[in-house]
Every structure is written in structure tokens, then in C-alpha cells.
Batch of 2 targets.
Target 1
Amino acid sequence: MDPFDDLSIAGEDLVIRRVDPNQHLATDRTNGCKRLSTKLFSASSGDNEGMSVDIPSLMEQAGVSPCQYVTNPKHVGSVVFTAGSARSALLMVGHQPVPDNPYHGQVWARSETGRFSKGQQRALLAAATWFVPISGVEITS
Amino acid sequence: MSLVASVYQDSSNVEPIRVPSTAVFRQPIAVREPLVTPWAQDIKGRLQELVELPSGWDGYMGAPVTFAHAVFSLSLLDRLYIDDLPMPDLIPGTDGSLQIEWHCNGCHVELDVLGANNVVATKYYDSDHEEYVLPLTNDFGSVLSWMRELL
């Protein structure tokens, strides 16, 4: 599927990005805590691959609890940001169901490589808030 | 059965990184004498963990860190070691890449290892909104000066 900006996903609609505390956390020695890494917000490899997200509005329409859907023993936390904040960072947001996740979406960069710039990663980090928080972990940029 | 690739020649006390059996060698691996830093064992342990991540480790379609990224990162950190600097965090990307990062003293240094000799280095501070970004291939001298600010 070619990257596209799905305008049926409104600017105020949230998208969820799951957090693996064993992989996505860095040590903030200034503040004595763990923090999310900007690398959490990066695209997959392969043609037209973006950053996978979950779209909670679709879950709610289907009567599925977003919190329960995205949380499991490995991904105990998750963050949300608005589709509008992604678009403000010159990214595109679209619904892209996959066989094991009908609520799957993608955030795509407009660059030729498909990679997010550091500025885009930091922008998403700055826009993110906890959906399912991980105790003692800060979201900072 | 896992393949075992020796990263270093004449390795006596240096354990190799084990390559998952699903790995594909895409380019030659440089073999040289190691500089054994205090970080070496912990870094190799973390890299081993990252190359062994299962597909979909991120809850979506995340790929494990590739062996090429791991080997290059190990070599890079060999060269960038500074006494008293804490070991960095190694964070996997979803595309097989990884990021090396430190957050100390209100200063943040991130080395996004996109490939061998293909690194985007970023430095930013808590105190202002300035951000310094350097695409790097072979010369990492400027990163060393950034890293000294972390002390």
C-alpha cells in the first residue's frame, strides 16, 4: 500500500504507539529516571513501510477496549499522540488493517527514504502523552 | 543451530556475537584486533540480545537488529570510549537499525546507526531548543567532543 494521508482520521483523533520497556527506554542520568527513546518513533524497513500504530477510534467503533487491546505482558505501556500533531511534523497518517490487527495504522514520512528525521521523532515525542503509563518513566524531548 | 561468527581475529578473552540462524550476510565483516574497553562485555551482551529479538518484537512488525548494524556499533563504541562516561543505552529500531544514546548533565547525544558508516549524530540540551545534527560516515571526531560534554 502506498503511503497516504487518510483524512477520515481527524486531526484530533488519537493514535497509539506501544512501548516495550525492555527495548524502548533510555537512562536519563540528569533526572535520575528512565525516559522514552526517540527511536520509539521510527519507521519499519521495506517499501512503503511507515511506523505502525493502533487507531483507538476504530476499536471503540467495534466495541473493543483500546487499553486492553494494546496492553499485554510484553507491551505494558503505550503512548498516544494526535493525528494532527503527526501531520504538523509533515507526516501522514492512514488506516492500514493487517491480518492480525484490523485497527492497525501507519504513520509515514514524506521523504524518499521513508525515514523519520530526528526533528520528526522529537516532535512526536513532545506531542506524546501516556495512554497506559509505565511507572517511573518520563516522556521528554 | 546458530551460526557463530568471530568478530575478532586472535580473540582470546573476547566472546563472539552469535549470529541467529536466520541471519543473512550481506557484506564482508572487517576483522581486526579488538580494543577491550570496560564497556565491551556489557555492550556485546546487549547487542546479542538485540540481534536475537523475535520478529514483531515491538508489537507490530519490528525486525531484529541486523548483525551488520551490531558489528559496526561495537566497532564504533570501541573507538568512542571515554573514561568515566557511562555505558550508553542501545535502542533497537523497527527496521533492524539501532540507536546509541546518552542523557547526562542536561546534554543528550544520540547516534542513530542506520547502517555501517551511515550514522546520524544528534546533540541537544535541556536548557535550550538548539539541536545539532551531523550525518557521519567515517570521521567521528566531532562526536567525541560531544561525548565529553556528557561528563
Target 2
Amino acid sequence: MQSVTQRLANPTRFMELSGRLLPWVSGAAALIIGYGLYLSFFVAPPDYQQGETVRIMFIHVPCAWLAMWGYGLIAISAFGLLVFRHPLADVSAKAAAPLGAAFTFLALVTGSLWGRPTWGTYWVWDARLTSVLILFFLYLGLIALRSSIEDETVASKLTAVLALVGIVMLPIIKFSVEWGNTLHQPSSVLKIGGPTIDPSILTPLLVMALGFTVLFIAMHLKAMRNEILRRRVKALQLAEVERVQAGHLAAAE
Amino acid sequence: MDLGPHAAFIWASYGILVAVLAGLIAWLVLDGRMLERRLADFAARGITRRSAAKPSNPQS
């Protein structure tokens, strides 16, 4: 009896399954985000302190969560590669890196645009903002390290090691708002004792977070499919070169 | 829709989000199409993967 991960370890089987799933996941993401936008702009009231700028929270917080969860996914994939040698683990890690970097970038930019009217400044070098900026550079480092090494096997192992080392950033980001002086508000959704946000604002936030998460899953599936296709193209290019070389050798003899 | 005196910050946030996500989705779709075209080109020239050529062999 094979486990789900063992059955999905076959790239061909993964391509078949993901090909069937992708339209449904993409459609679900579009519907949930559409509903979330409706709630965000037409149902949620202005915040009693922040006014209309609270609507930036509906995109900033999901982006920030996905920035961290994306890195968690890369770290789990890296662990799967180094420990279990799962054939799709490296494909998953490589596919998630640009997506995680994009969501981290969006968290930084939307946070900055939210900070100006709320705090009076676009940026402060406090623990939360600085640690998220470091996470963004870590993503870029993973992408740069992989693309700088031609040997795919060596590149995958080195980036996996860096990804596992970098996971230390996740608790630093999570607890940075509690460890020092910061303009950033403390956790108000994922906290012991439950959320402290009013349901009229919490509901659109959670719907948007769900929609963005499903969108991330859809994009990750598509990026993994592309990576598998890229590796097939590379293998065929090598096979073609070998065939041509064999032909030249045969002609020379 | 009146978003108050800070409407520009709200619209800028959503605008940048849409631009980045649209760019990502377009990159993923176009990259996938380009790779499928290249694989089809190899297949047209008779160069195929062993596993694709022998679907009956579960070990390949």
C-alpha cells in the first residue's frame, strides 16, 4: 500500500493529477478572492481608528502570511529532498521560491503604503519590518544560488541546506512584534485566546486569506508542472546531443 | 466609492498587488506554453523520453 506522497513521487502521475486539479483550484481561487473583494470594499466598515486604510489590511496580512508559509513550504520540501530524497521535493522547493519572494515583496510594499497614513512613515528599521526584509533577501538568495550552479543535483542540495538554515527567520518574524519597541501592531488573529478583531473586519480578512492561499496552491502546482516540463526538455536536449555525437563517431569509423 | 483622504494609498496597494499577481500568472502560463511547444518540437523530430515511448513499462 503506497502512501499519497509515494504515489505522487512519480512525476508523470503528478502531471496527470495536477492537470486535472489545476482548473478547479484556479477557479476556486478566483471565486473566493472575488467574494473577498466584495466583502472588503462593500461590506466591511471603516475601522474606528484607521478609517478606510484598514482595507489595505485585507491584502497585506494574507501576503505576509503567505510570505512565511511559502518559506515553510520550501523548508519542508528541502527536508524531503535531503532526508527522504523525494523526487518532487526539489521541484516543489524551486517552484515555491519565486512565489514566496513575490508575496514577501507585496507584504513589504502594501505594509509600507499602509504605514504612511497610519504611522506617518513608509518604513522603520524595527524588528518586524527588518526581519521580513531579510526574508525577502533570503528568497532572492535561494533563487540566485540555484541559478548560479549549473549542476542541478549540487544546486538542489546547496539551496536545500540554505533553506533549512534560513527557517530560523520564521519564529524571529512571528515574535519580533513582542520582543522590542515597534510601530507594528502585535498579532491580532493567530494568537492564544482567539482573534481580537471585530467580526465585521475579521471575516473579509479570513476570506481573502483563504482565497490567496488557494491562489498560491494553484500557482505552485502550475510552477511545479512547468519545472517538470523544463527538466524533460533538458533531458531531451542532452539525448539529442548524445545522438548527434554518436552519429559523428559512427561516421568517423 | 469614497475611500477618504488616503484613497491613493489604498488604490496603490491594490494596483501593485494586481500588477505583481498578473505578472506572475502570465509568466507561469507563457512559460508552460513555451515548454510544451519545445516538447512537441522534440516529439515531432522523433526524440521522446524513454518513459513516454514505453508506457507499458512501470519501471521506466
